[in-house]
Design brief:
This protein is α/β, with parallel strands linked by helices and about 500 residues long. The chain folds into three domains: about 5-180, Ribosomal Protein S5, domain 2; about 190-415, 3-Layer(aba) Sandwich (Rossmann fold), CATH 3.40.50; about 430-500, no CATH class. Helices cover about 35% and strands about 15% of the residues. The chain has helices at about 40-45, 45-55, 85-95, 125-130, 145, 160-170, 200-210, 225-230, 240-255, 275-280, 290-295, 310-315, 315-320, 365-370, 375-380, 395-400, 405-425, 435-440, 445-460, 460-480, 485-495; strands at about 5-10, 20-25, 30-35, 65-70, 105, 110, 115-120, 135-140, 155-160, 175-180, 215-220, 270, 280-285, 290, 300, 325-330, 330-335, 340-345, 385-390. The chain has a five-stranded parallel β-sheet. The chain has a four-stranded mixed β-sheet with strand order 1-2-4-3. It starts with a strand and ends in an 8-residue tail after the last helix. The model has no long low-confidence stretch (mean pLDDT about 90).
Length: about 500
């Protein structure tokens, strides 16, 4: 028997794709097919898929002792992506494929019993890592469009095992396309012009978009909270290519997978209040991204916030600060990005009509306190803007002139403010560190006195104080980027006085 054949591929660990060397050795002894190197059940099942695919592709499956080693041995491997490299390794090791396999080429693909190649999950992160290693990539034809989104990638697509073998023999070389990322396109979002009245809420939405601030809205049913939240993506700046690739990579490794039509669209996730902590944060074996990671570089909207389980809400605290989530499940650990813009809506009381002019609320004080206490103080502290959204009156609903500005006009002001922040600190104001807040949020003496007074009067924590400064900085940026004035500070304080509670 000859020397072991080695084919390059990659595993999936979070949105990382560590290199895997698929080593195949044919030895003397009774025929058997063993796969070692921490394979999951799906990888072990590839033995039957590979056996059938080789036999139906006009090759002979060797009657030998076949050992497949997926190195490194301590890295868990899962999914059907190793079918193609294992099959190629068997053919090379049995001298049925005498052409040498290039050391700068990686192979991915799940095999059907007929040898046809099926798409696999997590192709974007794998191609990104291959580009960094200066490797070419052969993928199933169904994954070709996804792989070609990575700049400088050299990607070829194949429909069948026979096509890949023909390429390696030189009979019918596959065509490697150069990766050229599509320009991110602005998706069609609902327009702010549909909103009537709600001038303060519209202003709060603009400020939140300009600085990537978290937003909590409280108001009776039907006041337009959800309507406003669904229009936030329409005024956010278009994603950069780097942001687009990050968001697409998270979708690529998710259970549903990535779709080309989502390229360049900011994610908007709105999970139901019955969602579990694992659904929100991510988890499982192997770990999969949850809603907070699927909302990376986009918006996470939680409607009826107090109806979520307390444990579910508490998992948001660290990602809101760090922009990532680390999932540990036994021997498996994965890190996913989770830099999302948090938007939440709630009723002022269990029945929803506290403070309403109709006087329909009959909630007792204890019931009201119990309802509000479902949201912890530390979580509220991490939300920059808290506003009340009152029910619009009949006159505002009937008056066509009471409509808000079009999203395009607001988006232009938001874009200008974001550009100021990028030039100044390289990131939106909501993501500034404490030191950066002190360096960039320069306020006039009158504004500083007002903010200090508000800190005492509203009982703000040190974290809330810095978040107040960040919001004031964003308001100043919408005005052209000068120093924070008394007016800017006053508006920032008004945007954190929901129900005079926080």
């Amino acid at each position: 028997m000859g020397a072991p054949a080695t084919i390059l591929s990659r595993a999936q660990c979070g949105i990382e794709a560590p290199q895997v060397r698929v080593e195949v050795h044919l030895g003397a002894g009774l025929p058997c097919f063993s796969i070692v190197g921490l394979p999951e059940a799906v990888v072990k099942e590839s033995r039957e898929r590979v056996r059938s695919a080789i036999a139906t592709s006009q090759f002979e499956f060797p009657q030998s002792r076949i050992t497949v080693n997926l190195a490194p041995a301590d890295l868990p491997k899962e999914g059907g992506r190793f079918d193609l490299p294992i099959a190629l390794g068997v053919l090379v090791a049995s001298d049925q494929l005498r052409a040498p396999v290039a050391e700068d080429c990686e192979f991915y693909g799940e095999l059907s019993l007929t040898g046809a190649l099926r798409a696999v999950r997590g192709m974007l992160p794998s191609v990104c890592q291959a580009v960094r290693a200066a490797h070419r990539v052969v993928v199933p034809r169904a994954n070709l469009a996804e792989g070609a989104l990575v700049e400088r990638a050299q990607v070829a697509g194949a429909e069948h095992l026979r096509e890949v073998c023909g390429h390696l023999r030189g009979d019918a070389p596959l065509e490697f396309a150069s990766g050229v990322p599509l320009e991110p396109q602005r998706a069609h979002y609902p327009d702010l012009a549909d909103v009537r009245g709600q001038a303060q809420a519209l202003r709060a939405l603009e400020v939140a978009a300009a600085g990537a601030h978290g937003l909590l809205m409280s108001g009776p049913p039907g006041s337009g909270k959800s309507m406003l939240a669904h229009r936030l993506c329409g005024i956010l700046p278009p994603m950069s290519l780097a942001e687009t690739l990050e968001a697409a990579s998270v979708l690529s490794v998710s259970t549903r997978g990535f779709r080309i039509g989502e390229w360049g669209c900011r994610p908007f996730r709105a999970p139901h209040h019955t969602a579990s902590a694992i659904a929100i944060a991510g988890g499982g074996v192997p770990p999969r991204p949850g809603e907070i990671s699927l909302a990376h570089n986009g918006v996470l909207f939680l409607d009826e916030l107090p109806e979520f389980e307390r444990a579910v809400l508490e998992v948001l605290r660290e990602p809101l600060e760090t922009g990532s989530v680390v999932l540990s499940r036994g021997s498996r650990q994965a890190e996913f990005p989770a830099r999302f813009q948090f938007v939440a809506a709630m009723n002022p009381c269990p029945c929803g009509y506290a403070g309403d002019a109709s006087g329909r609320c009959r909630c007792s004080e204890s019931r009201l306190l119990n309802y509000r206490s479902r949201i912890s103080g530390p979580l509220l502290d991490r939300i920059d803007i808290h506003i009340d959204v009152p029910r619009p009156d009949a006159e505002a609903m009937a008056n066509v002139r009471s409509r808000g500005e079009r999203s395009a006009s607001v988006a232009e002001r938001v874009r200008c403010a974001r550009e100021l922040q990028t030039r100044r600190a390289g990131r939106p104001n909501a993501h500034l560190s404490t030191r950066e807040v002190e360096d960039t949020c320069n306020a006039s003496p009158e504004a500083e006195r007002l903010i200090r007074t508000a800190m005492s009067a509203l009982g703000l924590s040190a974290r809330a104080y810095h978040r107040l400064l960040r919001v004031a900085r964003t308001i100043a940026d919408l005005d052209g980027g000068g120093a924070i004035t008394l007016q800017h500070a006053g508006e920032a304080i008004q945007l954190r006085r929901m129900g005079a509670r926080t």
